[in-house]
Amino acid sequence: MTLMELWFTEEHTKNVRFSIKVDKQLVSRQGDFQRIDVFETKEFGKVLTLDGFLMVTEKDEFIYHEMITHVPMAVNPDIKKVLVIGAGDGGTIRELTRYEKVERIDMVEIDREVVAVCKEYLPQTACKLEDERVHIHYEDGLKFVRKPVNEYDLIIVDSTDPFGPGEGLFTKEFYGNCFKALTERGILINQHESPYYENDLKAMQRAHKHIKSAFPISTVYQMHIPTYPSGHWLFGFASKGLSPTKDLNAEKWNGLGLKTKYYNTNLHLGAFALPNYVMELLEES
Ligand code: SAM
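^ thats the input. predicted complex w/ S-adenosylmethionine below
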C-alpha cells in the first residue's frame, strides 16, 4: 500500500507552479479575513500560508525579516518610534526589538487570528510579541494611518499582496498618510512585490508610482527569497530626506554588534544597485 503524498502548491503564474512536500498539516483555520494554514515540511520547516499564498517559512524567513528591518535601522540607528503594519507572524517585531534605542512599536494587524496561530505554531518568529514596547492594534492599517501626524520615525509595511485585505496598503491615499505620519527624518519601508512575472511587476510599478508621488526620495532594494515567486523580491525605501545609501551609518550600525545571517552593511549598498530591467520598470511607472 502507498500512502498519498501531500504537497503545498502555489500558482506563481498561469504557467508556473511552486510546490513543497508536506509532512503534516498542523492547523487550518478560517480567520475573519483569510484562511490560515500551517504545514510541517522537511525542506523549509514550518510554513505559514494565508488564503493559499505562502507567507513565511522557518528556513528562509531570516532574509525577509532582516532586510525589512536592518536596512532602515542602519540608515538611522536613532529610530525610537516605529509603526509596523501587518506582520502578524512576528518576524519583523523580533528583529526590531533587538534595538535598545527603539522605545515604542505600534503594530497594526487586521487579523487577530493570524497572531494567535503564529504564537502557537511559529514561535521562531512570534517570540517577541510580548515585549513591553510592542503595542498591538487589531485594525485595518489603511484606517489607522489616517490619524497620526509627525509621529513615527519609521513605518514598515509588512503586508500580504495587493489583493484581499492588503489591497488598501498599496494605494495613493495610504502612502500619502504614511508621509504625514512620519517625522522629518522618517523612513517608509514596504513589501514591494517582485519585478519578474507580469502580474507581480504591474503591482510593483503601481506601488512605486504612488510612493513616488508622495515622497521626495523613493527607490527599491532587492533580495533573494527562495520561496517567493521568481525568488527575486523587492522592498520599497522612501523618505522625506534621508538617502538609503549616502546616509548609511555603517560604523554606528556595526558598532551595535548585532549578529545577522543575511544582512550586512556591504550587502546594504549592493541591494540598492539594481539590474537595468528593474531600473527601466521603475522609470516607466
Ligand atoms: N512576509 C509576508 C509576505 O509578504 O508574504 C507577509 C507576512 S504577514 C503574515 C502579513 C500580514 O498582513 C497578515 O497577517 C495580514 O493579516 C496582514 N494584513 C493584510 N492586510 C492588512 C491591513 N489592511 N491592515 C493590517 N494588516 C493587514
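Residues 6-57 form a domain with the Spermidine Synthase; Chain: A, domain 2 fold (CATH 2.30.140.10).
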